Amino acid sequence: MNGLYALKPWYANRLSGVRASLVRHEVSPDTVTAAGVVAAAGAAAALAWLPAGPAALPVAVLLAARLAFANLDGALARDTGRTTRRGAVLNELGDRVADLVVLAGFLTLAPLWLVALTGLAATLPSWVSLAGAAAGAPRRNGGPVGKTERCLLVVIAAASGWAVPVLTVIAAGSPLTAGLRLAGLWRETS
Questions:
Q1: First-last CA distance in the chain
Q2: The whole model's pTM is what?
Q3: What are phi and psi of 52, to 5 degrees?
Q4: Could you give the CA distance from residue 161 to residue 166 in angstroms, rounded to a whole number?
Q5: How many Cα atoms are found within 13 Å in the side-chain-facing hemisphere of 63?
Q6: Chain centroid to CA 46
Q7: Closest alpha carbon to 177 in 152, 141, 153, 134
Q8: SS in 3 state form for 144-176?
């Protein structure tokens, strides 16, 4: 069930030079978390204000940066011995805010009720993962509609203009993803 999340080790390896540079320049992990939210906001703005087609490249680049920052903040904290409980909370809040900000880019493209429903649904997989981690289980990530898949779907919407179909897939696939994660956690914690 890992979906595109299975590419995370490959992606992290590609980012090792960036991570080393951030360590050398003593960049705070919290700054990297904030940069991820800013990248998400940029992607949302491009999605909202650029026409379908031309929006695809900036949205893809900014969402790739958002995923890179989400990968780098924790790794940077571990590499520099700066892991804190406050940093973990900020990381999770930053991820949720970034997810919702990206979906807010659809407000000019789709009905408010669908964007709101999709935003609520998109948080469900993370809530399940966080609940499992709170119970001492390993953190569950991945698809079928996890964070990486949602980013890909947003790029598809930016390229095609299919805002409503993409939101519908995210709104339906996110509870499915949460349910699959919950089923795995249920087995692990029994």
A1: 20
A2: 0.93
A3: -55, 140
A4: 9
A5: 29
A6: 17
A7: 141
A8: CCCHHHHHHHHHHHHHHCCHHHHHHHHHHHHHH
Amino acid at 168: T
Q: Quick: pLDDT tens for 80-134.
A: 999 999 999 999 999 999 999 999 999 999 999 999 999 999 999 999 999 999 9
Q: For residues 39 and 146, what is the distance between their CA atoms, to the nearest angstrom?
A: 18
What is the rounded CA–CA span in Å between residue 102 and residue 76?
24
Interaxial angle between packed helices 29-49 and 147-160, expressed in degrees from 0 to 180 and rounded to the nearest 10: 30
List, for residues 7-30, the tens digit of each pLDDT value. 778 877 888 899 999 999 999 999
Residue ranges in 50-162 assigned as alpha helix (H): 56-79, 85-104, 112-134, 147-160
**Which residue is listed with tokens 């119970």?**
135
Burial of 114 from C-beta contacts in 10 A (0-12 / 13-18 / 19+): middle
Residues 156 and 52: their CA atoms lie apart, in Å, by: 9
Helices 85-104 and 29-49 cross at an angle (nearest 10°) of: 10
